[in-house]
Design a protein that fits this description.
Length: 314
Amino acid sequence: MLFKYKDFISTINLSKEEIFEILDTAKHMKEINKREVKKVPTLKGKTISTAFFEPSTRTRTSFEIAAKRLSADTVSFTSTTSSTTKGETLLDTIKNIENMHTDIFVIRHKCSGAVKFVADNVKAHIVNAGDGTNEHPTQAMLDLFTIREHKNTLTGLNVAIIGDIDHSRVARSNIWAMQKLGINVILYGPKTMLPSDTTPLKCHIAKNFKEAVTEADVVMMLRIQLERQNKILIPSLREYAMYFGLNKTSAKYLKKDAIIMHPGPINRGVELSTEYADCDRSVILNQVENGIAVRMAILYLLGMQKRRTDGSST
């Protein structure tokens, strides 16, 4: 087992070999999901708690299904049902649940860095299910898993990520992981939704939709993160859809074998028209399906380790 980290917080420090270990493990986990009895005793006796301090449908549900299919005991709580509403700190909340002998926490939080802060201060394994605008590493892993399924490779591919890049934790986790695997990432979006300094991303910034997708093997559309914006960044959703959305007009620039991805939830008619969200080239529902297998793999890789006290994480 190559994966020796206490936690799964980010993709930025993962090696190529560690990424492939996760993807290869997920391939075995997907086979379990296709059985009539979708359950193995791998993590029997382990307790996994999902702690979500932001709304979630796909991520939370898939983690809970993943844990149960590995036979772990699961506990779930949200910000509205936790003592944080009474003034208790995030760390105190997690430490209290940890002392009920919880082995793994899956945490989503609105503040960037909050999950890493928790990971550095508890002994339990921590999985980042999305922290602010920082990262969403399990989403990146399921995206890579889905791409490899459809393209049979990852090396040398061109991936266009289009939309609200600045506020997208999905984009960041994907960029860090994809570049480790030799994937060429192209970014495109409104200038107001791009980071003020794109140099650290080491990606080509396209000038228009055509340039972004013409050579792309994968086109990943992103949702506008309205809940993370404190000011108006576009004139209107109609104009955004016209210049930055994938629709009948812009889709003519796509390669014939390009696949269409979206981390969800989709704002139909804005970043993606229904016609292309549901077309044969769309792998969006495959992403959802693969999310369970990938999260099973990550819980397995963490759950099979003994608790560590040195605090090393990724």
